[in-house]
Write a structure and sequence with these properties.
The chain has 149 residues and is of the alpha+beta class. Helices cover 15% and strands 28% of the residues. Strands 1, 2, 3, 4, 5, 6 and 7 form a seven-stranded mixed β-sheet that branches. A hairpin with a 4-residue loop joins strand 1 and strand 2. It is globular.
């Protein structure tokens, strides 16, 4: 798992699969507003036509000048938002689609998440402003962090 301290080291990194296949360059990272934890990386490779795709950082490994992502190229290429520009943030709904695509569960859904930690479902519900219920397509909990800045 990538931590906050490793963000600067990701500047200029190329992303690879565990099998050593180059995916493209790290464009930017999305960081959880509550925990500060890097959650998603946007990888782009203009030469191959990979036009910006979000990949989870949960099981990624940062090596010198390369980010290793534990997903097959075919899975990454089919990810939601791969062909579209989702912008520099993901909505809650987009993030849920990405979790499902990569076969991950949102760790914030864990039953034993401590109240007030920002990880529990109730914390997220409390963070939504009154009148926005059901508008997950417009709400985000992530912010852009450009590596090296």
């Amino acid at each position: 798992m990538i931590n906050r301290e490793q963000l600067a080291a990701m500047a200029g990194c190329a992303a690879y699969t565990q099998e050593g296949q180059r995916l493209g360059g790290v464009e930017y990272v999305l960081v959880d507003d509550t925990t500060g934890r890097p959650e998603w990386v946007r990888v782009t490779d203009r030469a191959s036509g990979l036009g910006g795709v979000f990949v989870p950082l949960r099981h990624a490994v940062l090596e010198p000048e390369r980010l290793v992502l534990p997903y097959a190229v075919s899975l990454i290429e089919r990810a939601p938002c791969a062909a579209l520009d989702c912008g520099s943030v993901l909505t809650v709904a987009e993030e849920q689609r990405l979790f499902a695509h990569y076969g991950l569960t949102d760790v914030r859904e864990q039953v034993n998440a401590e109240p007030g930690s920002g990880w529990s479902r109730m914390d997220r519900a409390d963070a939504l402003h009154e009148g926005t219920a059901g508008q997950e397509a417009r709400v985000s909990r992530l912010r852009t962090a450009r590596p090296g800045r």
